[in-house]
Amino acid sequence: MGDSAPGRPLTGLLEALERWSTERQALLAGCNAGLPGAGEWPGLPGLQEARGLWAQLRSREQLRRALLPAPAEAGPLNSRVLASRMLRLMHGESPGYLRHFTAYVDMLAGLQALHDRNAVTPAGRPLRKGASTTS
Predict the structure, then answer these.
(1) CB under 8 Å to 10, separation ≥6 — which residues?
(2) Top-confidence residue, 27 or 7
(3) Is residue 131 part of a domain?
(4) Is 126 helix (H, G, I), strand (E, B) or coil?
(5) pLDDT-derived band of residue 93, with 50, 70 and 90 as boundaries?
(6) pLDDT of 15-74, one tens digit each?
(7) CB under 8 Å to 31, separation ≥6 — which residues?
(8) Can you give the residue range of the structural domain that contains 82?
(9) Left, alpha or beta for 130 (phi > 0: left; psi -120 to 50: alpha)?
(10) Per-residue DSSP letters for 39-90?
(11) pTM strictly above 0.70
(12) Which of 52, 85, 53 is nearest to 68 (CA)?
């Protein structure tokens, strides 16, 4: 999930809890098929709290990285300079919107990574690592 060293233990915990939840649901489906009320497992309120905390920490880190100064030697039409200027203006006008925007862009990047990881060639073989699905 995250690429910062302090977030890795929390990421591992969240991934393990998700894995356990999936395994638990599979076992439940196999063991209790057809029994009324057997499909209900107690919720994990701590998991929701951990997810919320992780989302908040990730959002803060994204915002910090987004507002880093652009390279001084880049020209005025450099895409990084333009993006940095846009993010600074957005932060000045509506910090809440900037948080939502960075979360949205992060979600899109995650979906792209998921798509790339599961992409196959027309022949049905997985793409090479680092290969693009577009021509």
Answers:
(1) 2, 50, 53, 54, 57
(2) 27
(3) no
(4) strand
(5) very high
(6) 888 888 888 887 777 666 555 555 566 677 778 888 888 888 887 887 788 778 877 788
(7) 38
(8) 45-118
(9) left
(10) T-----HHHHHHHHHHHHHHHHHHHHHHTSPPPTTS-TT-HHHHHHHHHHHH
(11) no
(12) 85
Average pLDDT across the chain, whole number: 76
Q: Note whether residue 35 is domain-resident.
A: no
Residue type, 39: G
- Does the structure show a pLDDT above 60 at 7? no
Cα(27)–Cα(86) distance, rounded to whole angstroms? 49
Phi and psi dihedrals of 42, rounded to 5?
Answer: -65, 145
Tally the domains of the chain.
Answer: 1
Residue 4: band (very low, low, confident or very high) from pLDDT cuts 50, 70, 90: very low
Looking up tokens 């908040």, which residue turns up? Answer: 56
CA-to-CA separations, 74 to 45, 82, 90, 107, 115, in angstroms, rounded: 48, 10, 21, 28, 33
Q: What is the DSSP letter of 6?
A: G
pLDDT of residue 84: 83
| Within-domain flag for 104 | yes
CB 127 within 8 A of CB 119: yes
108 lies in some domain: yes
